[in-house]
Structures are given as structure tokens and as C-alpha cells.
Amino acid sequence: MSWRVVVISSRCKLDYSMNYMVIRGEETQRILIDEIAVLILENNAVSMTGCLLSSLLEKKIKVILCDSTRSPQAEMLPYYGAHNSSLKIKQQIAWKDEIKQQTWTQIVREKILNQSKLLVKYEKSKESEMLQGYTKEIKSGDISNREGHAAKVYFNALFGMKFTRSDEENPINSALNYGYSLILSAFNREVVLNGYLTQLGLAHDNQFNHYNLSCDLMEPFRIIVDQEVRNRIPETFGKEEKHQLVDILNKTYRIRNTGQTLLNAIKIYSKSVFDALEEENVELIRFVEI
Questions:
Q1: Residues 192-204: pLDDT tens digits?
Q2: CA R_g for the chain
């Protein structure tokens, strides 16, 4: 089972040898490809052989490419992640609006509940109770936008009344966005591996968003990033802070009464959502315990 998140930060050449990824830099290192779940290339001076690229795609390993600021810029996945992708895509297109709305309602409720729980940890009981109240007001498909109302209360309670998510220069926002992008990439991988299209979402429906479905699925997991950032409150956001956030993918969380790395928890949760949509039964959804 793949489990390692590998980050390449220095100039080097990556090639393939007998099922190993060979890293040729100041020193030569070898990593068994079957152990790799995610490969992050932070340095633009990294070169890769075609043989290694082909092997990574064959093993369905998520490869994230970063820009000159070491922020995720693109990702590489195979065209098809399942042998029956054509069937899965037909089923995805045929999902009924009712079950999509029911599923989205459950996802939003879980997200707000997780936000409420986190606020309790930081002694924000008043705001936590407000969010608890919002969960009771959610209508099918969240047509009253309780998610949006909860977000304003939540972020102001977590990071201060002057904090706004629209401030792109704020290092807190930079950290949040970087962490969210890592989790989004993990969900993109699961959507593709299960044979579905990332573009066709449940509630997210932006024609310019290639990852609408992944954005839907990841919502309850955002709190994992929020907590990491809140614990650190970074004054700057650079290489060291990014590597600290990458480590959340290896941390253990409980789902279905078992301890799993975040990557495995995402796998289990995603499959349960797909089962719920296919069988039209939201009780099949299994959320991670946060």
C-alpha cells in the first residue's frame, strides 16, 4: 500500500530503476515506487526521465508540480483511473438531483459541525453554539447558504475580527490555501482512481473549475488545515512552513473505528460517498473523526 509523501526540494535528476525512483543530486537516494502515494516537485530545476513518468502514471501516483514560489501549480494523473471509467462516468452523469442534494447537505452539516468542534478547543463557546444552530437550519442542498454564514463566524472567531479570506497578502491565507491545495490534490486522485470526472460536481458548478467534485468532497476536511494553521499563526509563509503542512497527509485520524493516515481516510470517505450516490443512500457515508 502506498503511503509516503515525497517532497523534492533541491536540484536533481529523477529516474527509474527496477521499481525504484532514483534521486540523483548531491547524494543518490532510492525510494521504492510502491511506497509513494504523492510526489511533490518543489524545485523547477528537477528533471525526470520518461521511463519514471510512465511508471508513476501506471502506479497512479499523484505528482504535484510547484511554481517558482513552491506553491502547487499543476498535477499529473493518468487519463483513466479505473478499468470501467466509461461506465462510471455514465453513472455519474445520471446521478439524480435529489441524492446529490442530500449528499451535499450531509457534507455541509459535517463541515459546520467540525468547525464548531474546533472553536470549542480555542474556547470560542459562543461562536461554537452559533454554528451548532446553523446545522439545525440547513435545508436540502443548503439553499439558505448556512455554510456561508457559518464561515464568516468561524474564521473571525479563529483568526480575529480583522481577518478576511480575501486578503491574498496575509501569510495565514497563504498557509490555508496551500494546505487546502494539498487536500484537494488527494481528492482529485481518489475521484480519478474510482473512475469519475473531477469536473462534474454536486454543488460546485463553476465552468472554470476543473475540480468541482473534489471541491465538494473535501469540505469536511478543511478543518484539518485550519487547525494546523491556527496552532502556528505564521508571520511568514515559506519553505519550512509548507513542509510542516505537507506532514498533515501522514498524520493519523479515525474513520470507521480505525486509525488511518489522512490519505487512507480520504480514500475510505470518498468511496463511501460514491457508494451513497450510486445506491441513493446517504447513510453509507463515513466521515472522518476530527
A1: 999 999 999 999 9
A2: 20
